[in-house]
Amino acid sequence: MSALPHDSSPSPSYTTSFAGRYDDWFAASNTDSTVGFLAALAKEGPPGPLLELGSGTGRVALPLAELGLTIEGIDASPEMTAQLQTKPGASAVRVTLGDFSAPLDPADEGRYALVYAAGGTFAELDTQEAQRRCLASAARRLKPGGRLVLDAHLPEALATRGNGTQPVDTPGEGFVLRTRTLRPASQQYTSDYAILDDGRMRHVRVSFRYFTPGELDLLAELAGLRLVRRTGGWSGRPLTDSSTHHVSVYELPLDRRRQGAPFRVR
């Protein structure tokens, strides 16, 4: 049996080399529950637009816009953003190209009712400093009473069930194997994807930094945010000992800005 042709070039970023096939291979099956969770949460806070950190191909942003919500996005990948812009309803979502962990434009301060990151996007910031900087920037974007929402793996589940190689349940055609490798000394992990694409085996690596919910709460507190809800997933089910993920909801207290608390991103 002959080996498949192999692309031996340096491992590409999925946001550049695979943007056109991303939805076929990696679009998550929990889109409906994610959209429902965020739409319900948007009704609880102040009026205003929503901002997605890492808007990608519009998997979450576009369905939210279809519900009549005002959605904006930030994404570092022109290729992924270009895919979003080819889809129906794309004109309703304004995307800014850039690093969502960077200090914000002063014009964006206090603009948003809800800021969110889905699909493990926040963990792609693979240092604690980048994650701290992102939370501080997100807090500054929020209106008083606004919410920040993100999802993440629970480290214990990563350690006991996340290592090794397994097939990825892809919504479209194609075959994808993922090998996840934990690096506890640096609190990081990598996901290596072997992708059978048009008869060729392609490879892409994505790096992440994992964290405990307690560490995330501390970083959020440093940004002036307080935890108001934590669930075991976008479905809203309770967080239990058997949960593999969590969705954490933070709020910028109504009196935070009036008290003149510092918001500095260094």
Element layout with pairings:
Layout: H1 14-17, H2 22-26, H3 31-42, E1 50-53, H4 61-66, E2 71-75, H5 78-85, E3 93-97, E4 112-117, H6 128-141, E5 142-153, H7 155-162, E6 164-167, E7 175-183, E8 188-197, E9 200-209, H8 213-222, E10 226-231, E11 245-251
Parallel strand pairs: 1-2, 1-4, 2-3, 4-5
Antiparallel strand pairs: 5-11, 6-7, 7-8, 8-9, 10-11
Task: Characterize the structure shown.
The protein folds into two domains: 57 residues; 174 residues, Rossmann fold (3-Layer(aba) Sandwich). It is an alpha/beta fold. The strands form two sheets. A seven-stranded mixed sheet has the order 3-2-1-4-5-11-10. Strand 6 and strand 7 form a beta hairpin.
Largest sheet: 7 strands, mixed
Please, what is the average pLDDT? Answer: 87
CATH class of the largest domain: Alpha Beta
Any idea how many domains? 2
A few lines on this structure:
With 266 residues, the protein is α/β, with parallel strands linked by helices.
Can you tag this structure with a few keywords?
alpha/beta, Rossmann fold, 8 helices, seven-stranded mixed beta sheet, globular
